[in-house]
Amino acid sequence: MSVQVDELDGWAVARVHGDIDVATAPRLREQLVAVVTGGQPNVVLDLDGVEFLDSTGLGVIVGLLKRTRTHGGDLRLVCTRPAVCRVFEITALDRTLPLSDSVEAAVARPSSGVG
Amino acid sequence: MGTEVALEIPPRREHLALVRLVVGATAAVGPPLTDRRIEDLKLAVSEACANAMDAQLRATSEASLRITIELDDESVAVTVSDHAGGFEPGAIDPLPSVTDPQRLRHERGLGLPLMRSLVDVVTFTPTDAGTAVRLEIQRSA
């Protein structure tokens, strides 16, 4: 698993590649926490390069959502791969964290303020 | 007649990707299953293996995990057997349903309810060494 962080219109865009599971999630958490505590609480997490997501990975994403909001920001998700989107649907997390089909759409989404 | 494939791995998380690969490739043998069902099974097995590894870590057991895949015309079943001593799923603190908004307070522990929503039958059986978790999907479902 690897993470590449870029900037777009005042958002940190974190593109993740590979599998997010109990083995790799701690590294993902560490890198995303560094983005938020480094002064960028508005984060787009792009999961289009992710082939697998488990419950520990979901936990990291929920933790990141809380952390961005605590810092006055927000988290947006980009997800189009069925196998990964499905995990959000089964757990109904897509209601709290709507899935966008591109980084541009995620950034343009109005703030939900839910959660 | 059914087919059985078995895999033994050290109880270390970096081996989970291998387990998923083997389960995905093996489940694709025989009467076709949709990609969605195969992905669901891979996730359920990965969660079961991660739980088994955590349990063995607590029990300080370095013994291998055994993953058995049984295929026949009606179903695909994967059994994960650990060496962690006993485990009673009912004895674990109850967690909210996977879709309950309260669950957002929990960053861990969603694996078990997730397994139950991913496959058709989840069975826990005590063994001499620990616990066997069997995850079954029906081809007709």
Main traits of this protein?
heterodimer; A: 115 residues; alpha/beta; Transcription Regulator spoIIAA; five-stranded mixed β-sheet; 5 helices; 42% helix; globular; B: 141 residues; alpha+beta; Heat Shock Protein 90; five-stranded antiparallel β-sheet; 3 helices
Task: Give structural notes.
- The complex is a heterodimer of chains A (115) and B (141).
- Chain A is an alpha/beta fold and 115 residues long.
- Chain A has one domain (2-106): Transcription Regulator spoIIAA (2-Layer Sandwich).
- Helices cover 42% and strands 31% of the residues of chain A.
- Chain A has 5 helices and 5 strands; from the N terminus they run E-E-H-E-H-E-H-H-E-H.
- Chain A has helices spanning 25-37, 55-70, 82-90, 93-96, 103-108; strands at 2-8, 11-20, 42-53, 74-78, 99-100.
- In chain A, strands 1-2-3-4-5 form a 5-stranded mixed β-sheet, with helices on both faces.
- In chain A, a hairpin with a 2-residue loop joins strand 1 and strand 2.
- Chain A is globular, with a radius of gyration of 13 Å.
- Chain A starts with a strand and ends in a 7-residue tail after the last helix.
- Chain B is of the alpha+beta class and 141 residues long.
- Chain B has a single domain, classed as Histidine kinase-like ATPase, C-terminal domain (Heat Shock Protein 90).
- Chain B has 3 helices and 5 strands; from the N terminus they run βααββαββ.
- In chain B, strand 2 (65-71) and strand 3 (75-81) form a beta hairpin.
- Chain B is globular, with a radius of gyration of 15 Å.
- The A-B interface holds A 19, 21-23, 52, 54-56, 58-60, 62-63, 82-83, 86-87, 90-93, 96, 115 and B 13-14, 16-17, 20, 35-36, 39-40, 42-43, 46-47, 50, 53, 98-99, 101, 103-104, 106-108, 110-111, 114, 117-118.
